[in-house]
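User:
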Amino acid sequence: MRCLLFGLLLLAGSTSFAQLREGFDPDEVKALIAMCNSYTFQDLYGSDAQITPKNYQKVFTSPTIGMDNKFQVYTKGTVGVINFRGSTNQIVSWVENMYSAMIPAKGVITLDKVEHPYCFAQDTGAAVHSGYALAVVLLSPTILEQISQLNQKGIYDILITGHSQGGALANMTRAYLENLPKGTLSSKNVYKTYAFANPMCGNKNFAEEYYARYCENNMSYTIINPADLVPSMPMHYQEQGKILSKERLKAWIFGQESFDIRKIGLEMVIRKFEKSLKDYVNSSNRLIEKMVSASYGSVDMPDYIRDINYYQVGNIRELQQFPYPKIQLDSNTLTEEQLAKLKPAEDGNYYKTEPNFYQHKPYNYYTAILREYFSRDYKNLEVKYLPENL
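Assistant: Predicted structure:
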């Protein structure tokens, strides 16, 4: 009898250990941001063996689907991972980002005259990014097939991740999976999301429902660098009250909100031309819809919502701004035009200026995670900057 009880306790203990735990887990974050760099390493060096985290096995890489989207599947014991690729240098990938008019979070997208019902939220006021919604619908048959295969292996704990556009797709896919009709997938599935440097993907109603369902139980996180502009896109502005209010001044003073004069200026412009901006976004996105239809067969999207105010989702964790190394330039090799654009430093030498989107690069997020949570690993890291990022 004692042996039986001991065996049951051991089984219960091992079962609870196998399950995804609530809360921010630096070990999970470290592994997932490494996976997000898989695509970068493959593109630059032809292999991701150097960056793939130990003990994780890549079991599937999807073909390119829809608007140049792709995802990988990894396993580690009883945990599976879905890792979405971020934006590529293909025009259609950026069309997906720019397709930012909002559609209802629940509706039907018709592809080649075949209806595809979707649901990202139950709130009837919730609305989502058209481009990311369309991408998830196009990816969904392959995603569901891969989750079913994980389930057949006894894997029901699934981490969902991605960097940049991939992070937005991670959040959208999480919402899509949680709102599938009962019986579509196993009810045993448990999802946890880590999105890195992701743009926003829905309005206030969507963000509030997402937070209530997946963030209050600490099962969804967004990791951003405040100096990275992408997480503040497509656009967000204060809807009501004064932009320069007492409450906001207090938030700046006590560090509850970062002071950014560019953001304040943008909010003033948006508030002044809000109606015109809504009309412009919707009309320009109708042209984008026609472009997508021309490339991928007929695409009939739901009517756009007259809302352009996006809100970030996930429990937000901020990293420190990524340092840019001091790279001295040889003034003898610079042209007069180049010298005119540069200012000499106090020591009289010229140094390379930080390139655009340096603060967004996935490898810089990787090294920042190591620096923040794994100081020994960061210290021992041989390559702290990818030369291609400099």
